Protein: Citrate synthase
Organism: Kribbella yunnanensis
Amino acid sequence: MRINPEVMSTTISVPPGLRNVVVTETTLGDVRGDEGFYHYRQYSAVDLAQSKTLEDVWFLLFEGHLPTAAERAKFIAELAPLRVLPEEVRAVLPAIAAAGPTINPLAGLRTALSLLAATKILPPLWDVDPARRKADAMLVCAVTPTILAALYRLREGQQPLDPRADLTAAASWLYLVTGKVPTDVEASAIEHYLIATVDHGFNASTFTARVITSTGADLVSAVAGAIGAFSGPLHGGAPDRALASLDEIGTPDRIDAWVRAKVEAGDRIMGFGHAVYRTDDPRSLMLREIARGPISHGPGGELVEFATTVEQRIVDVLAELKPGRNLYANVEFYAGVVMELCGIPRAMFTPTFAVSRVIGWSANILEQAADSKIIRPSAQYVGPPPPAPVE
């Protein structure tokens, strides 16, 4: 990190939400919103999603280069035992899954990971070398899908499944949730989605993870903080809400009236607009093509046809009602469609997003842990004047 804090020794005012404020330097990737492009390290993220496996991209972010065949085989072999739940964590999952009136896998994940950190005695990042940090990150990323799927199945009155070493990470996720080995088409569709959502610049959850990391805390504390930020409906918690909008609209003749009513009420239309992109979200474009592909052959074809009709009409009506805003479908809109077609229940849409994003969080944690400077911005006080100092 080469940004010199001496240059910013005086306070400055910044835009709300820190928009366009550069807070650090990274080698992990970037989002170029005006161009509708983003990348992981020096590779187009969409190109990687279309040509590589999730394990390849995971290796790329952790190691800095794409793996050779031998490196890939070794990496996958290292991951297999890490996916298995420690007995201490497995024993308390039924109680975690049963908590609360409705299923909340992300809240349960925070709890289970905290227990994992205590069980495995994960030390503060400040106290350990890069090799131990990476080992802890590998463990957390590998076991996260197992925990999430187990919590869901327990809540549904089903027994959790053990990970299968013969399945890819994407196929394993579908198996752990649904109990069925997915078809190649289903596994490929979910793998495209998972790779496309591994990382995406300094979003709220990634920034949260890096702030916590800068304090020297343990890796799970940073990941748990990221999960908390990610769970919000304005961040990772949108895919199921976007699909719910299709249910609410119901038929094509209701689209325009539905959009106008939402805009007039000041409501956000989930699955549209993005904090960075001012053109089409490249992730959405890719997922739309996947939704239109072989996976839609059969009963899912009607959902895809309706979704594409709704997307175009919403974009057109928003262009009329909000000229100059450039509001297009974002990743959540077609993510929900693809996951629905692959048999993932809606309660697990956002957890599926977390399965990939935990890899990006961890890569950012590892990068941030190499910097010894704590993140400590300032705030401008605008409340009632305090009392004068006592002389």
Remarks:
- The beta strands are 29-32, 37-40, 43-44.
- Residues 130-155 form the longest helix (26 residues).
- The chain has a mean pLDDT of 91.
- DSSP finds 17 helices and three strands in the chain.
